Automatic annotation (TrEMBL):
One of its GO terms (molecular function) is transmembrane transporter activity. It is a multi-pass membrane protein. It comes from Brevibacterium luteolum. The chain crosses the membrane at residues 33-53, 60-78, 123-143, 155-176, 188-204, 224-244, 250-270, 277-294. SUPFAM superfamilies: Multidrug resistance efflux transporter EmrE (SSF103481). GO terms for biological process: lipopolysaccharide biosynthetic process. This is EamA family transporter. Belongs to the EamA transporter family. It comes from the Bacteria. Its main location: membrane. It is found in: Cell membrane. The lineage of its organism: Bacteria, Bacillati, Actinomycetota, Actinomycetes, Micrococcales. InterPro entries: EamA_dom (IPR000620), EmrE-like (IPR037185), Small_drug/metabolite_transptr (IPR000390).
Length: 295
């Protein structure tokens, strides 16, 4: 993996963790919130997409729309599932589980079906990253008594379920988008701009049936909408560009270094516990990053 690709993915990881922390602050109207930031993202990306098409008009056609629709649907499923998870469980559980499940599935499929061979340093680095994520995720000792165990289970089980389901969609869109950006001539920025527009159009009918939730988002969550609308596409466009320079089986686990920042934000902003254990897991992740950088 080149230093350029490494820098792109690590920058994307920082942006990703920050926008997820912003999304965690939203409570009770997740679908309207997802629609709002998808709409703002589409509006922000539209001028750049138009500029690319003006320079390369031959890109316009049904094939471009088709691949963007598939990507958009996968990203909608991911975004809505993630927001439900944040509404029902801790950031420090949902985020590591989601970011851990995704690369595990992505790497296994990439190795088994795509014929990628990143070398033993890359594979070992990916496995070490997954181990670090497990350390971050496994709950610490609950408070004494039945009440403490029940509270731990109440927080853990929904986090594992929604995090795991989110990770499945992460693997789906990662592999699909990797296929598109590496087998077609579509610029990642144009591809993601059109995908964001698809997201907004598909989600609009249901969102418009919830005017009260849209008003609540516009009043109470406009800052979170702005943060996610900017940082979410930025993070993923950087990843798409990195995918053009390095195997997906390396990019996918490396981008999960965002859990280091996510763990710190969960402790700092939301008062979530077990910081020491989770930072130990983050240190394991960093060692895996070092091996991936050598691949």
């Amino acid at each position: 993996m080149t230093l350029t690709a490494l820098g792109l993915v690590l920058t994307a990881s920082l942006a990703h963790a920050v926008w997820n922390a912003a999304a965690k602050t939203v409570r009770g109207h997740g679908y309207a919130f997802v629609f709002a930031y998808q709409l703002v993202s589409a509006v922000l990306l539209l001028p750049m997409g138009i500029a690319i098409i003006a320079q390369q008009p031959d890109l316009i056609g049904w094939p471009l729309l088709g691949v963007a629709v598939v990507s958009g649907l996968l990203h909608i499923a991911y975004s809505v599932t993630l927001q439900i998870g944040y509404d029902r469980a801790d950031l420090g559980i949902v985020y590591p589980v989601a970011r851990g499940t995704g690369p595990v599935l992505t790497m296994l499929i990439a190795l088994a079906m795509l014929g990628e061979r990143p070398g033993w340093p890359g594979i070992l680095g990916g496995l070490i990253i997954v181990t670090g994520i497990a350390v971050v995720t496994v709950p610490g000792r609950p408070a004494a008594g039945v009440t403490g165990r029940r509270e731990s289970s109440r927080l853990l089980v929904p986090g594992l379920f929604w995090g795991g389901l989110t990770g499945t969609f992460i693997a789906g869109y990662t592999l699909w988008d990797h296929h598109v950006v590496t087998t077609t001539e579509y610029p990642p920025l144009l591809y993601f701009a059109l995908s964001s527009a698809v997201n907004a159009v598909v989600m609009a009918p249901r969102a418009m049936c919830r005017p009260a939730e849209l008003r609540a988002v516009a009043v109470s969550d406009k800052r979170a909408v702005s943060v996610v609308a900017v940082l979410s596409p930025l993070a993923y466009i950087l990843v798409l560009i990195a995918m053009q320079q390095a195997p997906v089986s390396l990019v996918a686990p490396l981008r999960e270094t965002s859990i280091i920042i996510g763990v710190l934000l969960a402790w700092w902003l939301f008062g979530e516990r077990d910081l020491g254990r989770r930072l130990a897991g983050a240190a394991i992740v960093i060692s895996g990053v070092g091996l991936i950088a050598l691949a």
